[in-house]
Design goal:
The complex is a heterodimer. By secondary structure, chain A is α/β, with parallel strands linked by helices. Helices cover about 25% and strands about 40% of the residues of chain A. Chain A has one domain. In chain A, helix 7 crosses helix 8 and helix 8 runs antiparallel to helix 9. Chain B is an alpha/beta fold. Chain B has a 6-stranded mixed beta sheet with strand order 6-9-10-3-11-12, sandwiched between helices. Chain B has a 4-stranded antiparallel beta sheet with strand order 2-1-4-5. A two-stranded antiparallel sheet of chain B has the order 7-8. In chain B, a hairpin with a 2-residue loop joins strand 11 and strand 12. In chain B, helix 4 crosses helix 6 and helix 6 runs parallel beside helix 7. The chains are: A alpha/beta, B alpha/beta. At the A-B interface, helix 7 and helix 8 of A face helix 2, strand 7 and helix 3 of B.
Chain lengths: ~450, ~250
């Protein structure tokens, strides 16, 4: 039996748009070939839809009705003040700042003074040397990754030397400035050498006057043995924006990787995270907070692959959902047959501020070893009426009491961020968004 | 003065009455004890005074300083001077004790038309009171009641009471789960707050607490009503004879 594949308008437009812009995308002939192969893969797969297991709750074929034209030139109008305003609580962070405007590196807005042990460049400049394309096997993620390969315009290419301890966080800002709705596709490749220490922050923001659009971003991070990495992502793309992010992290032996996602004020978000242990004795903590209002849809899907023995993984995601917002959490922990002494714990908790909000949670443990400690849990609850009464009986007005309880709920996730300045910045962003949620 | 008039209360989602005509008068400057067996409605009375959801007043009224408080929200009652010391104080992870106390105190001060305390002012005041109640600085830094022992939680309740400067204090089973030393510390804290412009309603199952907080009057509750009222000697009588007689009479 042959099944006729019917493609949606958006899917057809994506393929057509690739043909139109292929000549203007960076990279040599080999990159061009890789892009062509990728768009072929996408044409065969189409956008992920609800019958693809990994996309059961986030049907992109249904959600993406229109494919926006790829952004090809950076908007010259962006100013440092615009960027700072969009960065909110992170604007004041003392960091090596690298800014991409509409998917292109912007030297004037970036601030990377000579940093010992850090080499950083724009991916677009490096692509002619055929660097930066990694064959990735990631079930369910193929179509989104193929689109990234086909359309990527730029991103950060960073290397932290063995043993180097970065003095400041590396703050990658992806700002949308164009007044025309567009597709922005970026890729970051970060290598952190053996024994090195780095904090990497990605912030996805839309500048005040800009139009919301579609984003497809991929970050590949490789940790050498005994490297310590903090990897933070803040997603605030605005009403009407669609944001697809894929993170792939490979961990050497004895590493520490602490990731945190703060997601708010974006119409549709899918954060896909994949971390694989490739050396023994490593520790991973992937946590986050998501705050949804109106009809926002925020999906966190993560896969932690314990491919070697003796590693530890922790995940804690906390969501607050108001109005008709929908949260999705899919957390898969794989423990391979050899991965004895694995210690994995996962928790997803949501506070429902409205009866019309929805939370779909799908924890999955795939355990092939016998000497492991693994657990997961998931809760969805309203604000606790007894706690609320206790605060009000002490004279605290209803609105303030609710805000205190919501803040304390989210605070437990934010406390996972160990760096005080980074935590303060993210807390400030979260609190201002929460004020909008509980009002 | 607190006037409870023929108060009838049931759970909002059940028909069974819990309070069946409670009447009681508590003037300022006095301490009254409400004693009674389990299930007599003592805790319900405490919750209804503080304005907790889930109860329905089907008849009667509660007047505080001549004004009905039944339609007031819990925080409005707190601003009016009503304070309930909980039998089981809530643990609130993520809310620092100090922040909570400052928010509460400044909320009621604002509603009472008083100047809010600055942080240094508040720190100074809380240190004095906390020290007296054996509440350490370290406890003030911790999330509210999280990991506190039974005695620490009750001392924290009394600290809150002292800081909020209420005029009507309702203490619900404040002695439950405390050893004798803790009962003494908590009682001293309560006695220090006895004042001419303050009324106190001490709800307890056992007479023990009343050795330390000596009441002006004792009311015995049974089956949703005040079955008997008398002087402090009534508590001693109950200690000997128990509640058996009241249960029988009420049923």
């Amino acid at each position: 039996m042959t099944v006729a594949i019917s493609r949606t308008t958006a899917e057809q437009t994506l393929t057509r748009q690739f043909e139109a812009v292929a000549g203007q995308l960076p990279g040599d002939a080999a990159i061009g070939e890789a892009r062509k192969a990728a768009i072929g893969t996408f044409a065969a797969l189409g956008l992920p839809h609800r019958r693809v297991e990994e996309w059961k709750y986030t049907d992109l074929r249904h959600a993406i009705k229109e494919a926006l034209p790829p952004a090809l030139a950076g908007d010259a109008g962006a100013s440092r003040q615009d960027i700072d305003r969009a960065l909110e609580g992170l604007a004041g962070l003392d960091a090596y700042r690298v800014v991409f405007v509409d998917g292109r590196y912007c030297a004037e807005l970036s601030d990377v003074a000579a940093a010992a042990g850090l080499r950083i460049g724009a991916l677009a400049a490096a692509l002619p040397r055929s660097e930066g394309l990694v064959a990735t096997v990631w079930p369910g993620q193929e179509a989104v990754l193929a689109l990234n390969t086909a359309f990527m315009t730029d991103g950060a290419l960073a290397r932290v030397a063995d043993g180097a301890k970065l003095a400041k966080p590396l703050l990658l800002v992806f700002a949308r400035a164009s007044k025309q709705p567009s597709l922005i596709t970026t890729r970051n490749i970060v290598h952190v050498g053996a024994g090195a220490r780095a904090t990497l922050i990605e912030a996805y923001v839309t500048l005040p006057e800009a139009a919301a659009g579609q984003t497809n971003t991929l970050s590949e991070v490789v940790l050498g043995d005994a490297a310590e990495v903090v990897h933070v992502k803040v997603t605030l793309e605005g009403d009407g924006a669609t944001h697809l992010a894929s993170w792939m992290t490979r961990l050497g032996a004895q590493t520490s990787y602490r990731a945190f996602h703060l997601t708010a004020a974006t119409a549709l978000v899918r954060n896909s995270l994949f971390a694989i242990f490739q050396g023994e004795g490593s520790k991973v903590d992937i946590s986050g907070a998501f705050l949804g209002r109106a009809a926002e849809h925020i999906d966190t899907t993560l896969v932690v692959d314990h491919a070697v023995p003796g590693c530890e993984s922790r995940e804690l995601f906390k969501g607050v959902l108001a109005d008709r917002a929908r949260g999705v959490f899919q957390g898969k922990v794989i423990v391979r047959p050899d991965a004895q002494k694995t210690d994995g714990k996962q928790m997803a908790q949501v506070l429902m501020l409205s009866e019309d909000a929805e939370f779909d949670s799908k924890p999955e443990l795939e355990i092939h070893a016998d000497d492991v400690v693994c657990g997961h849990g998931s809760t969805a609850a309203e604000i606790d009426a007894d706690l609320l009464f206790y605060l009000r009986a002490r004279g605290i007005p209803l609105g303030v009491a609710r805000a205190m309880l919501i803040e304390s709920f989210v605070g437990e996730a934010l406390d996972k961020i160990e760096d005080e300045a980074v935590r303060a910045g993210l807390t400030q962003i979260a609190l201002s968004r929460l004020a909008g949620l509980s009002a | 003065m607190l006037e409870i008039k023929n108060l009838h209360v049931k759970l909002a989602d059940e028909d069974k009455p819990i309070l069946r005509g409670v009447s009681l008068q508590l003037p300022k400057g006095e301490v009254h004890a409400v004693m009674g067996p389990n299930g007599s409605g003592k805790s319900t009375l405490a919750y209804v005074l503080a304005g907790r959801d889930g109860y329905e007043v089907t008849d009667g009224d509660i007047l505080w300083e001549g004004q009905s408080i039944l339609d007031m929200e819990p925080d409005e009652r707190a601003a009016k001077g009503v304070f309930l010391a909980f039998q089981y104080p809530m643990e609130i992870p993520g809310v620092g004790t100090f922040t909570f106390l400052r928010t509460a105190v400044n909320s009621v001060r604002k509603k009472r038309g008083l100047q809010e305390f600055t942080t240094p002012e508040f720190m100074k005041r809380i240190r004095q009171t906390a020290g007296r109640l054996g509440v350490s600085e370290e406890m003030l830094k911790r999330p509210l009641n999280v990991g506190f022992s039974g005695g620490e939680k009750k001392r924290m309740e009394i600290l809150q009471m002292a800081m909020l400067e209420p005029t009507l204090c309702v203490l619900d089973e404040t002695d439950s789960g405390l050893d004798i030393d803790a009962v003494r510390v908590v009682s001293e804290g309560v006695n220090a707050l006895r004042a001419q412009d303050r009324a106190m309603l001490v709800i307890t199952h056992y007479q023990r607490l009343l050795n330390y907080i000596v009441p002006d009057k004792v009311h015995v509750m049974a089956d949703g009503r005040i079955a008997r009222s008398g002087g402090k000697e009534l508590a001693l009588e109950l200690e000997k004879s128990g509640y058996a007689g009241f249960k029988g009479k009420a049923a």
